[in-house]
Amino acid sequence: MKVVIVGNNVAGTFTAQNIHFLNEDVEIEIFTQERYPYYTRVNLPELIPGKIQAEDLIVFKDDWYKDKNIKLNLNSKVTKIEPDQKVLFIEGQDDPVSYDKLILALGSVPNIPPIKNAREMVGKGVFTLRTIDDALEIKEFIQNVKAKKAIIIGGGLLGLELANQIKNANLDATVVEFFPRLLPRQLDDECSGMLKNEIESKGINVVLNAATEEIVGNGAVNGIKLKDGQKIDADIVLIQAGIRATIDLAQNSGLETNRGIIVDEYLETSKKNIFAVGDCVEYKNQTWGIIPACMEQSKIVAASVLGLKKIEYKGTTPKNTLKIVGLELTSIGVFDPSQEVGGGWDILKRADKKDCCYQKLVLKDNTLKGAILFGDNKAMSFVYKKMEQDVTREELMDILELYLYICSNCGAEYDETKREILFKDLPNDWKCLNCKHPKEGFKKQQNK
Ligand SMILES: Cc1cc2nc3c(=O)[nH]c(=O)nc-3n(C[C@H](O)[C@H](O)[C@H](O)COP(=O)(O)OP(=O)(O)OC[C@H]3O[C@@H](n4cnc5c(N)ncnc54)[C@H](O)[C@@H]3O)c2cc1C
User: Fold this and answer.
1) CATH 2.70.98.40 corresponds to the domain 404-445
2) Which terminus of the chain faces fewer neighbouring Cβ atoms within 10 Å, N or C?
């Protein structure tokens, strides 16, 4: 059997590895339009200040492919699939490539919002970051024009990580975010405010509630104009405003698509013998765009193409970690139950503003559904292990070091899980709200 995979990043590569693991006799051929073997995108921003080189990002070198008998074709853009003939075509080549099973691991591309001049100025002062070549182009541009000021449009994870590396490249960096808070998809208001302070303390400027209307400049970029009329100067504008699944190849070849390539629970598309995996996939109206989803799907799709349809895809819990040295931040699953349907939600929160620590655990009917861990990752392994599992409130109180304090005079309770302020942070002259007994008269209860 011959399996052809289009796309050579996390999803395509790990699918190939998993197929080889399940059956060494399968012939596997990969096509990718990029010029590098599998590399990780995670550390791409570090290429810009020159902290690392492109070779450092390459995960699997030629030997890995040889060893697994996987044929890798670089610089090979697939232009058309003919599902009925089970063939596909490569740009610049006349002969079709045949397959028994085809896997589309086409990934996604950066989204460029409808900002005046943004598309026209791409490569001439406006850039997005997705590939090694994008990073090298940004680095070269900064050097060539001796750029001093950068604007990063998008205060999500990638925008902040990029801003940090732009700062490391000795540019003045300003993050411009449309929403009223940073990381709008990963954090609640309170934690987002704490993160903003930390980001600003690193010398990165943050402008919130900022809708960019126009890239300003004639031939060369000299800034942006916001909808409220404010102008911010810059020599380079970097757009990190979300991603779009790559669907054009699938769409033009008659596969069902929406925001992504539509798949069933075995990751098969609307056309027989064609599967999809990774960022390009849409399952039950959802797309992902994170590595854990690629890894999980790559196991399922490998089994599916080999006819071992045992595991069904159930979606992947969102997991995101901000990678800025000195800033520990992970957001996983549900972080804001007010956005969810149904009842039974409970929140345990420890907000230590002085130490810049914020830990929030979200449960529904005693099942752990999500967490935000900022400034202190001690609870991380617990959260990863217990996600979607039964937990007790006491166990979570222990993990977050939250306690119940009892007034020795009247028995009133100060329950830290329900209060904004930790007991230790209450002023010394604080008194029992019930009987006015002094703070020292409270006793800490040990969690069971
Ligand atoms: C800077 C950066 C940092 C990131 N950090 C994290 C992180 O910390 N954690 C995390 O979970 N995720 C992170 N991500 C997201 C993660 O990289 C993606 O989820 C992952 O790369 C998706 O893998 P994929 O294989 O589905 O698609 P992609 O990585 O997009 O790869 C798809 C490949 O297919 C090729 N292709 C597309 N169409 C064709 C065609 N017609 N012919 C041939 N080849 C084609 C593309 O050129 C591309 O090489 C980050 C992304 C970026 C850009």
Assistant:
1) no
2) C
